[in-house]
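Record format v2
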Amino acid sequence: MEKEPTIIAFCCHYCAFTAADLAGTMRKQYPTNIRIVRIPCTGKADENMVLRAFVEGADGVMVAGCEIGSCHFIQGNVRALKRIAHAKKLLGETGVNPDRLEFYHVAASQGPLFATTSAEFTERIKQLNAGGKASPDTKSAEGSTGDV
Amino acid sequence: MITAERKLFDDLYAKASQHKKVLLLGCGTCVTVCMAGGEKEVDILESQLKLAARERGDDFEVTTHTIVRQCDDEFFDEETSRKIAAADAVISLACGVGIQFCSEKYSKQRVYAGVNTVFYGATIEQGKWEERCAGCGECIVDKTGGICPIARCSKSLLNGPCGGTTNGKCEVSDDIECAWALIVKRMKELGRLEELSEISAPKNWATSRDGGPRRIVHESLLLDEGAKKNG
């Protein structure tokens, strides 16, 4: 039987963390693989924060922050996008598939989106663990439609 | 400051994986500012090496340490010496000066360069550094409106611009500002353009690298032999 993956989700206090809370309040289930780490803003998530998560044994890392224009600290999520892109490059250099790391935009009101995003990302990591390729993820940072 | 860029990861991995225990030694001064070899970059490299070792099935230990400056004896304290001695090899992320100083000081230790030292430069905006000084040993920027033609002109011309200047850009690349176009513009703004009509004589390059490796001695700062022995 395949080992269940461990996924670290660095969630912004002002949006994705609240969305995760809302998902629970709305009784929307998301995989138990997700371990949420609350951060004050995704602008706090630098390259080594995500690399360290992998070193410590994570199979996947998702960083979830506010939609562009909604950051409590104005530019934190924009900076995070650049840093996560850089972290993906650094991961690739080591031989770890960069698809194991993803940035998502999830607003505080989007509890169901947090649940579906978590489920999709977990499925992606399970496929990667099984030796497959990552499936295209329509709700990643580039393609998020943000439907509640 | 002295600027540097980290070497390619595969090169560093090839060096690190030859040893059982590797110390990544960061420097807290210039290379910290240009984000090449400070504490943060040391931590990132540590994580990368550990992840790559796991992926490639290699087994070696990586430790980290960062000191204020690697080009100064006083910052190699007991703790640093202990950590260097405990490692099989050191990857120094200091500039070429720091790497050499570390290597001279711990002459029995294998010290690898973790960065490529590039130039003396300034932070022109967040995340961008540009060459500003060539360390030629005879500064003339007071005559050129505060802009160094030695470092910033592709030909280091003392009487420019040359025929390769086009719309303020250098013929070498559109990304390079013509230093002499900048100098003329600045001197005009300062109302000192006339001063440029004076022809500069050929420079004495003996003060630069042409004179061989250089040394500065401040007699008043030198310690006598007794004081040296007492540390």
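The interface with chain B takes residues 46-48, 51-52, 54-55, 90-91, 93-96 of chain A (CB under 8 Å).
Helices of chain A lie at 16-25, 47-55, 76-94, 111-129.
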